[in-house]
Structure formats: structure tokens, C-alpha cells
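Workshop exercise sheet. Pairs work together: one partner reads the sequence aloud, the other fills in the structure field after running the prediction. Swap roles for the next sheet.
Pair: D.N. / O.F.
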Amino acid sequence: MKTWFHSWRAAIRIARRDAWRSKGRSALVLAMIALPILGVSGLDLTYRSSELSPAEKVERSLGAADARFKDAALGGVPIFQDPAGETSTPVKDYEDEPWPSGSTDVTRTIPAGSTVLTDTQGSAKLTTAHGLLQAEVRELKASDPIARGIMPLLEGRYPEKADEVMATSHFLESSGLSIGSTLSARNFDRPYRIVGSYELPDTLNTDQVNALPGAFLAPYGKAVEKAGVPAPEASVSYLVRKSGGFTWNTVKEINAKGVTVVSRAALLDPPAKSEVPLYQKKSFGDYESSPAADAAALASLATVVGLAILEICLLAGPAFAVGARRSRRQLGLVGANGGARSHIRAIVLSGGLVIGVAAAVTGTVLALILTLVLQPVLEEAMGQRFGAFDIRPLELLGIALLAVLTGLLAAIVPAFTASRQTVLASLTGRRGVRRGSRVLPLIGLVALLIGGAVALFGSMVSEQVALVAVGSALAELGVVAMTPALVGLFGRTGRWLPLSPRLALRDAVRNRGRTAPAVAAVLAAVAGTVAVSTYMASREAQHRAEYEATLPYGVAAAFVQEEGGRDVPAVREAIQRNFPVDVRADVGRVSVGKPGCPPWGGDPGCGRYEVLVPPANECPLYATVPGGGDPAAKYTPEQRRKMLTEDWRCEESPSSGMWVSDGGLVVGDAKLLQVLGVDDPATVKALADGKIVAFNRSLVDRNGTVGIKQVTDIPAADKAAEQGRPTPGKVSALPAYQVPGDRKSYGVQVLMTPATAKAAGLATVPMGVYVSTDRLPDGEQRQKLDSELSKLGSNVEMHLEEGFVNEYGIILLSLAVFAGLVTIGAAGIATGLAQADAEADLKTLAAVGAPPRVRRTLSGFQCGVVAAMGVVLGSAAGLLPAVGLRLTEEREQLHYYEQNLAEGWSADLTPPHVPIVVPWETLAGLLVAVPLGAALLAALVTRSRGALARRAAT
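Structure field:
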């Protein structure tokens, strides 16, 4: 034991001295190992610090209160809830009954003697330095001790008067306002002075303003209602403090009154799952991941970590081989003085140990420092404040041990190679010729065949993506094991090459111990790039084939559905001003109730409308059944399929497309027809004559009219719909013109002019605009329009049809650049080792009269040969997983298609199209540009003349 300790201590001292002497090579390997450790350690520190403890969560949500009470909005019926108060459901099952709704008096459930703080949240369009900004408004007395921790004050003070507010720092930044500024809201002229700024630790990017209870939302709601706009909804909760707090049993008692409770005691000490009635209810659970899912996640993580370690070992291994080769005289002296092969292996392995430990310490320390220094940046990026700076020593130690393991694994092969050198060969600098292993290529071939079979089985038989991934990884490892033999096969092409590339290829083949790891490293990086690139290119081709335009090419549409279209004129002018508009068509919508009502109704004094489908034109599969039920259940799959393919009432209408308004009803003029590409003179004439233009055949009854029903009693209409009865309302039958043929109308199913709507007694409000453009607007024009629209404070639905846009282009380019960098790095390491080995050959070439440039060209070709071999093998290996995944997707989509066909729900008899596309541009860059670039770079950084050599003893 003592001898073993002393021998390893001496080996580590020698390795540390060699690492210090070769600072450049040591720094390169250290950086390769330390950078992943830095990233993973930083990720661990960031994740753990952002993961709040129960006490921190309670402080941010409840402050100093014991509970938060809130109405479940289920009419006061008994409910079940989870311990966190995030999910609730009625105790009773309402499968065949209407779901309960309505409010309950929460204050009656608060125990007597409790201290209560009201927390009301709403929204408003607030005035800013730039225009209007939709923001949250929260009425909570933030200065109260109960609210401590919910809204930490950053600057200034808390509001003390009814005309004072404070705002989040994000709101002040977005609005251009500051402490001391005044703000108000649209339709609300009362000014408020900003007296302080605060933040919400869990949502730093929230635009929110805080006022005293009753100071803003109530008067604001009255003002907007007076302007004809429905008041925004507000949610109210109550922060409650009570001696003894609220136990889980108390929470369940309050749940019986239809109120949810977020309890401090239940959050800090959660009850057992068996004590939570919600989890015992049918169709409910705690939604934890299954053991199989956890095992799959761990397997995936282990695969990623293993492949990352393999890549680093393949890159760092040749660097350790360089050190061992340059220290061969020293290692020979160790052997000459009685050192065993184990001692030589220990010295080389100690080099990996020293670099691994240094990389572990460097990566961990840098991760700690950078995470601490960049904490504000990380918090802003994540949108939440850290809790405590959480350092988990065991986790960081485990990550650091990966660095040590990586260093040792990278040095194993160079260690065994160095120990097999004879003492005489090490001292004289002679290189023996050793035959390569015949077992390793056979193992690699077996792994390749088994991995390929597993991947094909997973893609063509079992439809398991995990099998495709495992098989592909096994096949890639097999190719890596076969690399030395494959390098030998490449050597047979040298007879047709000129002198320098022939020498480079011969040198690579003769020294496969240093060539194979570098080629394998390039292979692994390129294989991953080719796999992802092929998969993405195939998906892009599929999406291109499936793409359906929502508007004619170059047409833009913008809609504003809120506040009765108040901002629509400003939106129209902004588009006219910033886009190269050819034809502009202003459109509106039908409004039932007050002018400011939303199109879907629901607010007091608001209704909705329906475009009726005559009973004779209803598809039997979707017709309303009295008493409810599925109308398609009584038909066989063959009958359903026949209806979908042969019955015009069930076919998809050419008027389908993006959602414009309820029933596709649009109020506009003939300019809209021009923008949508409908050039039928009869259609234009019918519209001018006051008729409704119908693009959907099923909406026109036998009398040639279209029925529009105005529904004013929303509760009665909803109840009738639940019972399968016609909804009550006033019906207007308007003469219609059916557009001939199957003209694409992009979601517009019915078009009428404002005069026609007025004559029919239908109120209209502005909705938006369609414009055709002379050319697609450029980036600057779009940015200017976005800037102007953002100042309006309205939710503007904007779409510009520019055809199919490839989303993966930048990703493919990034992958190609990454693979290129790894390839150049691995090839550069192999070239450095080749130069160390080939110094004698270069001296011989110089002695026989070779010009100095031969050194440069030989170095360049050595680097290019390694890069080329790795790229070629990696390109071939990377196609397998991509093809396997695409075949798996094809089987899944084919299964879904056949199932729909068998059930009679598919009218499309065309099988799914799942193409496999090879990204030739990416492959061309990898196969040509990367090896050529590596060769040129190596030639440029190599000196033309070698250093003056001393005479070797013989």
C-alpha cells in the first residue's frame, strides 16, 4: 500500500510538472473539460437558487397572512381543492347536468376576530409617455404589515392617499414614466401621482399599478360604463390573519361553502395524499410523473452525458497522446531506471487526473463566481428573483467528478500506448510499427449491425422513438470503434494523390492511434449535425407541402374586437401610412347590445348573433339533437365516410380559413372582394344591389335568403343550447347571392354592406381592415407599424400573408457552424500530434531538397485528411437516426389516418406525406468547405521552416 501511494504521488508530481511546462496544450485540454463543467454547474446553481422553499413561496404569495380566501365561482356549492389552492372542482359530479356557476359571499366564511386585508385585481388601459399600455391594477394596502413581502418597495414610498399609486419597475420602464409622474386611463380623466416603485418577485416582467382599496377600479369602472364600454372584470381575494392559523381540516370545512383557501400551514406542512379528497376523486390525481417516465428521462440524461463525455475524450485523447509522445525520452528514462509499465501508465494517467482536477476546480469556481455576479441578469432573463443562493455541495461534487472521470478516460489509451513502447525505442526516439487490433473493428461492426437493426425495428415495427435513439447511438459507437479500420481503407486512395496529400494520408494511416480518435471526434459531431439537419429539412418539406395560406399572398389584415372598435380608425391609418398599400378595404362587424360590447357577448347589456344554417342544409353528422347527444353515433363508419365524401352539406367549404368573426359575417364593400381576389362582376353587382354575398352554400335556404339571429338573452340561449333546443332571438331573413364555384374566401363566409345591415336593423361597429400590397413590406416598415400599434394599448390581431416561411434555416446554419468548429478543433489537435511525430520525415524532406513550403502543405493536408475522413463517416452515420425518426412519424400518422378512415371521420383518401429530405446544402458545406477550411487554416498557422535540430546519438 505504501509503495503504491509513493509511486502515484511521484507520478502526479511528474504529471503536474509536465502540465506546467506545456501550458498551451494543458490550457486547451483544461478548457475543453472545464467549459461543460462550468455550464452544468452554473445551471445547477441557477436552478436550485430559483427553486423556492415553501417558506419563500408563502412569503411571496401570502406575505404575513395565514391564508388567502377566494371565491371558487361555482355558486357556493361544496368543492374539493388541492393543498396549494391551485385546483378545485365541485364535490358532486355534474356529468349530465349544467356546471354550477355564480358567486358566493366569501366574507361570511372568514372566522370572527380575524384581521382581513382585501386584495382586488383588475386591468385598465393606462396613459404613458408613449400612448396607452394595457396593465394590471391591483388594489391592496401594501404598507400593511400583513402584505409584507408580496410587493417589495424598491424606491419612493407606498400610496397613502386615494390619488396616489405606485408602479412596478417594469411598468415604469415600459411606459417612460417615473416617480413623480402622473397617469390616468382611457375614458377616465382622474389623475394619479406615482409615489413609488416596487416589484413582484415571482413575475418581474409584469406591468402593474398599485392603489389603495377602492381608489381606482370602482370609479374607473363607472367611467368606462358611462362611455358605453363594459367595465373590466375584477377578482377579489382576502388575506386573513387568525390566531392559530388554518389547518388542513379547517380548509376542508371552508371548502364546503364553495371557497378556496391557500393556507400557510398547508403549504409549509402539506397533508398526505390520502387526506386530500381531490386526489381520491375519479379522473383526478396529483399529476406526478410515472416511474416509467422518470426512468426514460434519466436514461435520456445519461445518454446525453455519456455522449458528451465521449466527445470530450475523443477530442482530448490526442492531446494527451501528444504529451506522452513528447515525453517519451523521460518515460524511457523511468523504464531504464527500473520503472515498470504500470509506473509509465500511472504517469500518463496522472496527466489526465491533474488536468481533470484542475478543470473541475476551475469550472466549479467560475460557475460560483459567474452565477453570483450575473445573478441580476439571470433573474431578469427568468422573470423571477432567486430565493437564497442555494449551493448543493454533493451535486457540485458529482459534476466535478465528471471532469476528473473525463480526464482519466481521455488519458487511458495514450497511457497504454506509451507503456507498450520499449525502453530502447523511447530513448532513441524510434517508432515501432504495431499492428492494429483486429477485435475492436469486429466489435464495432457487430454494434453497428445490432444498432441499425434496433433503430429500424423501432421505426418500422414498434413505433418507439426510444428504440430509434438507442439503436442509433449504438450504431454510432460501432462506427467509432471501426474508425481505425476505416482509416486504413481510406489509405488505399493515396496512390492517385500528389506528393503532399499522399504523404499526409500515409502518415494518418500509419499512425492510427492518433488519427482514429480525432476522426471519431469529428464523426460524432458531424453525425449529430447531419441527423438534426436531415430531420429538420424533412419536417420543413412536410410543412411546406401542408401549408395553407390564410390570405392571398401579400395581403395584410388587422382586427380589433374590443371597446366597439374604438382604435380601428387609428389602426387603419397606421397600416396605410407604413405599408405599401395597393387597395384598402375597411370592414366592420355586427354588434348586439351596447356599442362597446365584445363580439361574443356575456357582459351586462350585451348579446350576440348567429348566422343560421337551414335545417335542410345541416350535415346529419353535426345536426343538433333534441335533449343533447352525438348525432353521428347512429351512423356506421361507412355511412359517415360516404357523407363526408359525397354529401355537399358535410364537405369542407372553400370559405373556411382563419377566424374573422362569428359565422364568418363581415360588413364591407366591393373593395374587400378585390383584395380577396374575387373578380366576379355578378357578385359585385349583387353586393351593390343590397344583397348578402354568401360564399358558403349551406347558409342559403331554398328561398335564397340568409338568416341572422340576434340573441339578447344570453343565459336563456345557453340553457337552450345545453338542452338541444333552438336559441331564442330575433331572426332577420335577408336576400342572398350565392357566389358560383369554389372560390377561396379565406374565412369570410358572408359579406354585406353597411347599408344592407342598417336596412335589416343590424347595428355595426368597426372591426378592422384588409389591404393588398404592391410588395411585401420590409423589416423597417413592419417595425414602425408594430411601434405605432403598441402605443394604442389595444389587442390588435395582425396577419400578413407572405407564403411559407422556413423556420429552421438559422438552426441548420448554427449546427453547420458548430460541426465545423469541432471538426477544425479535432483536426488541429491531430495535426499537432502529426507534426510532433513527423519531424524526422520533414527533416529528411528538407535534406533531399524539398522547398520550405512542403512543411506548410503537408501540415495543411494532414489536417484536411483528418477532417475529410471524419466528415464523410459522420455524414453517413448521421442519416440513420434521422431516417428512423421520420419512418416512426410516418407510421404514427399512417396509423392515425387509417383509424380516422375506419371510423369514418376522414374524407381525405390520400395517405399522409412524410418525406425524407437530405439537406444537400449543409452536407456540401460539411464535405467541402469544412475540410478545405481546416486545411487552409493549418497551413497558415504552420511555420515554413522547422527549428534547428540537434544531432541525435546513435
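Discussion prompt: The radius of gyration is 37 Å. What would you look at next?
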